[in-house]
Design a protein that fits this description.
The complex is a heterodimer. Chain A is built from 4 helices and 5 strands. Chain A has a 5-stranded parallel beta sheet with strand order 2-1-3-4-5, sandwiched between helices. The longest helix of chain A is centred in the N-terminal third of the chain and has 13 residues. Chain A is globular, with a radius of gyration of 13 Å. Chain B is of the alpha/beta class. Chain B is rod-shaped, with a radius of gyration of 50 Å. The longest helix of chain B has 52 residues. Classes of the chains: A alpha/beta, B alpha/beta. At the A-B interface, helix 1 of A face helix 9 and helix 10 of B.
Chain lengths: 116, 497
């Protein structure tokens, strides 16, 4: 079964980038523009993995993560952010990538986490 | 050594013997045969010692003694007494004679009397000397004291700091010239009144701390000068104890550190700005990576939609980089304005087109008092610069209105353009939250924002710079909770730029 990755980022250039990258490599994707919208998308799509930006206009990434954790979800999260040195904000994240990231590294991590 | 001596005796023999003896002893001897002649000699020659017979016809010795002592109290008088004159002799001592010797004159007794007279003269001279010295000393010390007092007052007054002496109630009991110049010198002023415009003492106050523990304390505060300017002061205090050791007053010394403080602010803001720029650049680079990836992926898959998508991202990011570079250049150096004639009507319409969606969404009424197409006129301006300035002010006006939404029934922004003889005046007034005095002072500072994370602190700084580069003026008037009004006035003729 095709694994689904949810991309959360407020910059449409980045979501399109990651969307293409993941789709080219055989994953399904869904997109949320910010942390607030992310919850609806998450509940609706039930993704297997989330790539999460930290700084977003309405609600920032760690808050969204805390919300799904509280609901009991253990969906793996990979942080992709321009803020470096903020690894403590989501201690349970599978990995942190600072922008600009290397696509092959992100892809390798996604595959490893999803066991593909 | 005393050397002038007058012998007064009616007996010539005695006069001669005494003259010879005393001349031998080193005296410059004068003689007189009776009291009257003696008194004349005294007046003329002012001898140091008078040796006079007590009994003489006419003016006797006693009368001479009285006259001499009255006229010249420092002249010593020795009386020569005869047998049975004991009472007179004692009387003469009471009247001021230094001694008396009896006839016939015994040389030793005379020597003793003369010595006594000389000692007395010497003692008096010494005493006079001491008195003179003492007077001189006192005068000198008094002069030095007055000089030093004057000097200390001058040092206190001309000190390049603001110095005031406060009592336990924070009343200013003394202050130096610089303090008076900037805060006034009305009697019964309280420091919190004149420096902070408060009606009660400040919560944190180094003076209060010094009164409590007697130690020196420091603080940094914004203070308001007499002319309304707000300056940043570094305050140091020290205790002034009275004679019993109790702290009766505290001295407050303030240094104006506004320039340093502004520099610190700017440096801190510069750091923040650099970090925000680098954060922005990271995002743009990632976007460019994304565009690059989409194009390559599209080329591989011959998917033109993907290629177009990737190209869009690249174009968007290039535009962002260009804007960012322009922004940075804009406030890193002075750009020469590109002056062109611009229609005021078009200018305002374009401004409104840009801002209208936000104004509508916030439910703000727009009140316009601007030229119509028929009364329109051109102004020489760098449109991009001035547009940015007006946009920044309008954005602030909208934000100010939004912040009181719910509190205020009717939200309004008024835009007015007035043409005067030499200037075109743009007024943008909102009935939003308003600005208090402190914010008004700093509102045009670089990186100063009262909007927390939402503000960059760039908008009004750049706006002022743009207006200044048009040789214009930008001003803000406001009342907290009521309104804020920005006025931009630019000269109509700007050919000399």
């Amino acid at each position: 079964m095709t694994k689904k990755i949810m991309i959360v980022d407020d910059d449409p250039a980045i979501t399109r980038y990651l969307e293409t990258l993941f789709k080219d490599n055989g994953f399904d994707t869904c997109i949320a523009d910010d942390g607030k919208q992310a919850m609806d998308v998450f509940l609706d799509q039930q993704p297997d993995l989330i790539t999460l930006d930290l700084e977003m206009p309405e609600e920032w990434g760690p808050r969204f993560f805390r919300k799904i954790s509280k609901k009991g979800y253990t969906t793996p999260v990979i942080v992709i952010s321009g803020l470096s040195g903020r690894t403590h904000s989501i201690p349970k994240a599978e990995a942190f990538f600072a922008k600009p990231f290397k696509p092959e590294e992100v892809l390798a991590k996604v595959k490893a986490v999803l066991g593909v | 050594m005393t050397n002038k001596l007058l012998v007064v005796d009616d007996e010539e023999g005695i006069r001669e013997i005494l003259e010879i003896t005393l001349t031998d002893a080193g005296y410059d001897v004068l003689t007189a045969e009776n009291g009257f002649a003696g008194l004349d000699m005294v007046k003329t020659h002012k001898p140091d010692i008078v040796l006079t017979d007590i009994r003489m016809p006419g003016m006797d010795g006693m009368a001479l003694l009285k006259s001499v002592k009255q006229l010249f109290p420092d002249i010593e008088v020795i009386m020569i007494t005869g047998y049975g004159d004991a009472n007179l002799a004692i009387e003469s001592l009471k009247t001021g004679a230094v001694d008396f010797i009896s006839k016939p004159v015994n040389q030793d007794v005379l020597d003793i009397a003369l010595k006594r007279a000389n000692d007395r003269i010497l003692t008096r001279e010494k005493l006079a000397d001491h008195t003179r010295n003492l007077e001189f000393l006192v005068a000198e010390k008094t002069r030095k004291l007055a000089e030093s007092e004057k000097r200390y007052i001058q040092l206190f007054n001309e000190s390049p700091a603001y110095i005031s002496i406060l009592d336990q109630h924070f009343r200013i009991v003394e202050s130096n010239n610089r303090f008076k110049d900037q805060f006034g010198d009305d009697p019964d002023m309280y420091c919190f009144q004149v420096q902070q415009q408060h009606t009660s003492p400040c919560d944190t106050c180094p003076v209060k701390e010094t009164f409590a523990d007697g130690r020196s304390h420091t603080a940094e505060m914004d203070v308001t000068l007499k002319d309304g300017h707000i300056r940043r002061f570094f305050i140091q205090t020290s205790a002034i104890p009275d004679d019993s050791g109790r702290i009766s007053h505290v001295m407050e010394m303030c240094t104006d550190i506004t320039v340093i403080h502004d520099l610190q602010d700017h440096l801190a803001a510069l750091g923040l700005h650099i970090s925000s720029i680098s954060h922005g650049i990271k995002g743009m680079l990632t976007g460019l990576d994304g565009g690059d990836y989409l194009i390559r992926s599209g080329l591989e898959q011959k998917d033109f939609h993907k290629i177009a998508n990737g190209w869009d991202i690249i174009r968007e990011k290039i535009a962002m980089i260009r804007q960012m570079v322009l922004d940075i250049l804009f406030h890193s150096k002075n750009r020469t304005p590109d002056m062109q004639p611009v229609s005021v009507f078009d200018f305002i319409q374009e401004l409104l087109t840009t801002m209208d969606p936000r104004i509508q969404k916030a439910g703000i009424d727009l009140i316009l008092d601007i030229p119509s197409p028929s009364t329109d006129f051109d102004v020489m301006m760098d449109k991009t610069m001035l547009f940015g300035a007006c946009l920044a002010i309008l954005e602030n006006a909208v934000d100010a209105c939004i912040s009181v939404k719910g509190v205020r029934k009717k939200l309004e922004i008024q835009i007015q353009v007035v043409e005067t003889l030499r200037q075109v005046v743009f007024k943008i007034r909102d009935n939003g939250k308003g600005l208090d005095k402190r914010y008004r002072q700093r509102i045009f500072s670089l990186f100063y924002s009262d909007k927390g994370n939402k503000g960059t602190g760039l908008g009004l700084f750049v706006a002022r710079r743009s207006v200044q580069q048009h040789q214009g003026e930008i001003q803000v008037d406001s009342e907290p909770g009521k309104f804020t009004e920005f006025t931009i006035a630019i000269p109509k003729k700007t050919s000399d730029i």
